[in-house]
Amino acid sequence: MDLFLQQTVNAFALGGTYALLALGLAVVFSIMGLINFAHGELMTISGYVLMYCGLAGLPFAISVALAISAAVVAAVLMERIAFRPVRNASGATMLVTSFAVAMILQVLFQNLISARSQAVLLPQFLSDSIRFGGLIIGINKIGAIVTTVVMLIFLDWFMKHQKAGIAMRASAEDFSVARLMGIRANTVIAGAFALSGLLAGVAAVLWVSQRASVDPLMGFTPVLKAFIAAILGGLGSLRGAVAGGFLLGAIEIYLAAFLPQELQEFRDPIGLCLVVIVLLFRPNGLIPSAALKAEKV
Question: What sections of the protein cross the membrane (predicted)?
Fold first, then answer.
């Protein structure tokens, strides 16, 4: 029982990171219809800022704030420089643009910083653990869970009670009508990218705090998993992105913990098979977007 509870905590910590990343993808997709595969590079930018702040001896709280701010600024610049000029092009053009931006940033990281993994200096307390009965929970795991809950509460409040959030929700429902009501497209889309950058920056801090390293491809795997989580939850659905992130995190952790040793090498394929089984019964995702009208045939 203690092992199950221990792994459940780990599942919440990992699932929370996937949920934040999936939310960042879902926010942009719900408004623009774009899956931004350069979203992972926002994570990498935050990771490198965190690394350099540590080398400079800045307090960890200031380092975290600068790392998250860097992701927000990078996301807004990415939208302005790369995506705004092709906004009215086909979905395929925007998708190729997102891959191009991701590859360009990866090459820049490799050539201007290092192709190898770099250590990130973290406070000692992140390596400590707390014992609850028979459970030993790392401070970084507790921090990840608490941070995820706080971010989800903040996002819910922002979307329901702030003018910018309400404008994003309206644009996600029907962008054309929202523009007729006076909502400015550039402002809403830039805000969506800024929000996705915020979520990517927070996710990057959580990711780095548990691994203490950063490399040019750091964001690739988490964002690929977040994309799967977004589809699992319902592409374009914010609540679905959260549900998909936590479910995918639980699948990965429980398979790693309870799958027989001889089957561990097949853990990822088995996990994807479970995702496919869920989608067979819920083809539009766990909590499908109201704007998605796809049907199983």
Answer: 12-37, 49-77, 89-109, 129-159, 188-208, 228-257, 269-287
140 located within any domain? yes
Nearest to 134 by CA among 1, 8, 272, 266: 1
pTM of the model: 0.89
Work out the burial of residue 76: count CB atoms within 10 Å of its CB; fewer than 13 is exposed, 13-18 middle, 19 or more buried: middle
Total domains, the chain? 1
Determine the structural domain holding residue 70 and report its residue range. Answer: 2-219
Residue 268 lies in a domain: no
Q: Are strands 135-138 and 129-132 parallel, antiparallel or unpaired?
A: antiparallel
Q: What residues contact residue 182 under an 8 Å CB cut-off, 6+ apart?
A: none
Four-residue CA torsion sign, 230, 100, 71, 210: positive
Q: pLDDT of 212-260, one tens digit each?
A: 899 999 988 899 999 999 999 888 788 888 899 999 999 999 998 888 8
User: What CA–CA distance (Å, rounded) separates 179 from 205?
Assistant: 35
pLDDT digits (tens, 9 = 90+) for 87-131: 877 778 888 999 999 999 999 999 999 888 999 888 888 787 888
Give a yes or no: residue 235 inside a domain.
Answer: no
